[in-house]
Amino acid sequence: MIPMNDLSIQYKKLEVEIHNSIDRVLEHGKYIMGPEVLELEKKLAEYVGVKYSVTCSSGTDALLMPLLAWGIGKGDAVFTTPFTFIATSEVVSLLGATPIFVDINPETFNMEPILLEQAIKKTIEEGRLKPRAVIPVDLFGLPADYEKLEAIAAKYNIKVLEDAAQGFGGRLMGRKAGSFGDAASTSFFPAKPLGCYGDGGAIFTNDLMLYEALKSIRIHGQGIDKYDNRRLGINGRLDTIQAAILLSKLSIFDDELKLRNEVANKYTDGLKEILSVPQVPNGYRSSWAQYAVLAKDYEEREVLMRALKDKDIQTTIYYQKPLHLQTANVKLGYKEGDFVVTENISKRIFSLPMYPYLEKKALEEIIYTLRSIF
Ligand SMILES: *Cc1c(COP(=O)(O)O)cnc(C)c1O
Hints:
Helices cover about 40% and strands about 15% of the residues. The protein has helices spanning about 10-30, 35-50, 60-70, 85-95, 115-125, 145-155, 210-220, 240-250, 255-270, 300-310, 340-350, 360-370; strands at about 50-55, 75-80, 100, 130-135, 160-165, 170, 175, 185, 200-205, 285, 290-295, 350.
């Protein structure tokens, strides 16, 4: 069997170090907000190239907390794409604000800047909701077009929250994913490019006021001490054990990115004549959270995925059902046909196995299986 992801190879590589670092936490006993948490935050901020990093309990909370800090709620509009994981719009709705979807670019699968500006203008004209923020998603590891998106956000004075849950490790214009916007969020869910052994996440920012607010929100809105609560918050901390694990994994993360790039390049070489392969525009680097290809149509995708399944090769469809068509979002009032690019791509896309340690032989088998169909 060739799985979508195999975390056991990385575990074997780091086994001794990870066990030692977990043992250290068990010995010192500071399970909550222990020294490893602070060390990890320092290292993450350095890695990404921002002033501050706040770790937290998941990528979802990493999106929720900055929105909470900015006071986003009822009557506010937050723009994002319908071609992402449900968490990106869920946090907006949880706060009582309204997600407004913006269609994607057919080549990068990321938010189309022109359509963002159109959506902001329309919202202002309608006058029902106040545009407050945009959450661009670095889909499959490729950073969104921040040069254009940040300029539009500045023009309309709205916040940018980069959803780098998949993008962590990617780059754009010499800057790392996680450094864009007013704040950025990432996830350490095990299958993400940098994952822990449970749930975890982090927020990045250069804004000192936001940094202080996030640290407070993470601990129930705590003020000067635990008897003082200044604002509404959540229990949003990252476990010390997970921080210790992430410190080990961060030490080999750049080597793993290189390996992911090699896997992606081999896929692209082997598949570009038969399928639509991922586009990485000039000046961009993907973290290759996923390697997603496009079939000609729905029927061809069925045939290709079936052929791989017959060879015991796993595939997954990210994302089969766009967010504007999810039952949880019925109240938003969207319908089929509202986002034609997203809908078209969701019927043709599928992801192939992708992890740093995917062996040459397995890669060749996947490519050979797909080529033999054509
Ligand atoms: C995984 C993911 C999240 C949520 O992260 P969790 O750690 O699972 O809460 C948010 N946005 C995107 C784009 C993701 O891929």
